[in-house]
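Teaching note: in complex prediction, the entire set of molecules is handled at once rather than each chain in isolation. The prompt given to students was simply: 'Predict the structure of this complex.' The entities are:
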Amino acid sequence: MTALRDLVRPWQRYSYGFLDESAKRAVRRGLLKAIAIPGCQISYASREMPMARGWGTGGLQVSLTLVEPESVVKVIDQGADDGVNAANIRSFIARASGARTTTDTLEATLIQSRHRIPEERLTRNQLLVLQVPDPEPLRAVVPDISVARIMHADADYGLMWLKLYEQLVQAGRVTQSSSYPSLVNGRHIMSPSPIPRWDTPKLHQAENLTLLSAGREKRLYAVPPWTDVKPLEFSDVAFKVEDQTGRVCERTGATGQFMNEMPLLDGTSTFELSDAGFAEKLARRRAGEAVTIGPTYYVDGELQP
Amino acid sequence: MNAPMTGLAMMPDLEPPRLVDEEPAVVVSGLTKRYGDFTAVDQVGFTAFPGEVIGVVGESGSGKSTLLRLLNLEEQPQAGTYTLGIKSCAGVNLFTLGRFESRSTRVRHIGIVYQNPHLGLHMHHTSGGNVAERLLVAGERSFHALRRRARAALDASEFPMDRIDVPPLTLSGGMQQRVQLAKAIALEPDLLLLDEPTTGLDVSVQALVLDTLKRLQRDRRITMVIVSHDLGVIRTLADRVLVMRRGAVVEAGLTDQVLGDPQHPYTQQLVHAKL
Ligand SMILES: Nc1ncnc2c1ncn2[C@@H]1O[C@H](COP(=O)(O)OP(=O)(O)O)[C@@H](O)[C@H]1O
Ligand SMILES: [Mg+2]
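The expected output is the structure of the full assembly:
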């Protein structure tokens, strides 16, 4: 006779990757839908995490669902690996999965990020998970979320374009800086999370899969590999990324990459690479270490094909 | 012709001879819209030829606005057919179009001016932006072309160009109607729908807006359906008139004839009340 205990798994304190199997299945199902309809927001049952909503719980649930023991995990916050929030999320994922962690983009297989995409080009073997505070690009033009959903279904994006038109009329330029609305696969307008404009073109025809997840708003969406992501722009007023001309990284001497401005007491400022893992490697190479630096999306401020 | 002179049968055939060779711009027949068991529009039919202005009169609640919403493809009727003389949809009952085609037909071929400008405008966006939105929805992606075309449409509605970047919210009622009108004609529609476009405006402003409409009609020969309970407006603009009562057309014909020599008691009442 079969004993009941032969039928169940051995007792464990937590499921692998913290989330229980049904939660992970629900996230995977949402991800599959999101990948099947690039840029379309899919709702999912976002779980309570041991972390406040709004601090990356959406990204964390995706990471925990996809992480494997062999994964190499990198977590960044505004480009930095050592922010408190990034460090907490990284150690939590490592503890819940047994995966190794890294700050080197080239080495990572799973990258969870808030507000940045690394400067070194991601490849087909890497997953990028972006934390999203507000997934709805139409929120700025229609307060009612159910109206927004109908507009997405109809590809009714006149108001979105109107917003850009009005910015040009009133400010003489498009003032939207981060979360720049982009048309995915020629169909859905998405908010690419609050990454700077600089990072938006990195999503276009990317080799890697990008997953975007909003824990509080309970929405998932995705940019599959080799998918068009086009920032909204008028044919005669081109989309421009933040100009990095003349900015030199204080620590590494690097130029032509996305810089953080560090104000000084005398009113001037210095600059520092925003991508801390990349800066770290450049600094080590400067010190004579043999470090592999991958190809970057931009060279000298120019986007590479 | 010995048919008993009751109901629709007493309406004479009044297609003006000058138009008989042309293809109609609008053909509507048997249009019926019910809300629950209340019939708001009851078996309405009419034909309009290119450049013709059809006036619709009737007391409040007779279904005029509902008829315009149907013609603007905003709602589905329970019965009826509706065709426009446009190449992309020649002979197609527009109520059978899918959601997407219906919307694109509405944007590209039909313009509407609502009595209440809040229905037709984004009050907080600029006036020029309101017109530009139409062009954007139709696929215009050049900023300079948007500016130029919005300007041209506002100019045609005799909107003062120095207010182009002012939101309608801060404009007078007459100016708001001009913005609606510019938006409605920006894509040179095949059919322009006007729902009480001058009601609620000061009398002097009414006359100015009416002038603009008349000029547009003369210069562009846009086919129009105009609803007004002001018979003066109808007399000024409409070639032919439909008299609606409780959702149904009780009398139809040339404007001068119907308003000058009304046959149906209801029309007589309307005309005399206004005179
Ligand atoms: N959405 C609706 N639901 C229910 N009844 C409606 C609706 N729209 C209009 N009606 C009714 O249909 C009738 C005709 O309305 P309407 O077309 O606005 O008349 P008019 O413009 O001639 O004053 C009114 O009695 C109105 O209450
Ligand atoms: Mg009405």
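Point out the following to students. The domain at 2-136+180-231 of chain A is CATH 3.40.50.11310 (Rossmann fold). Chain A has two domains: 2-136+180-231, 259-303.
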